Amino acid sequence: MGRFVWVKGRVFMRWPSGMMPGDVLEGLEEQPLVSNPKVRELKKKRAKLLSELRNYKVKFADEVLQQRQNKVDRDNQVQGNIAPG
C-alpha cells in the first residue's frame, strides 16, 4: 500500500495516487464491517446462546439455594428446633 516517510522525527504515510486511508480493495462480502448476512446469523446464534447460558445460571443458582435450604431444614429438624415442613 503506502510507504512510511520520516520527516524531522515524525512518521507520515505516503499513499499511492488515487488512494486515501479507509479505501478498501477487497470485495464487499470479504469486509467484516459491512452488512454481512453471516454476521447477522452469528449475532442471532450468539444471542440465543447467551440466553441459554442465563437460563442455566438461574437453574444452577436455584438448585444450590434449594440444597442449602434443605440442609438447614435437616439440621433444624435434627436439633428439634423447628417442625418439618
Compact summary:
With 85 residues, this protein is mainly α. The protein is built from 1 helix and 2 strands. It has one helix at 37-79; strands at residues 3-7, 10-14.
Terminal Cα span: 76 Å
What strand line-up does the widest sheet have?
A: 1-2
Provide the gyration radius in Å. 31 Å
Helix/strand order, N-terminal first: EEH
Give the uncertain stretches in residue-range form. none
Percent of residues in helical segments?
40-55%
Number of strand elements: 2
* Percent range for β-strand residues: 5-15%
Let me know the average pLDDT.
76
Query: Class by helix and strand content?
Result: mainly alpha
| Gross geometry | rod-shaped
This entry's quaternary arrangement is single chain
Specify the number of helices. 1
Largest sheet: number of strands, sense, barrel closure = 2 strands, antiparallel
Keywords for this entry:
rod-shaped; two-stranded antiparallel sheet; 2 strands; mainly alpha; 85 residues
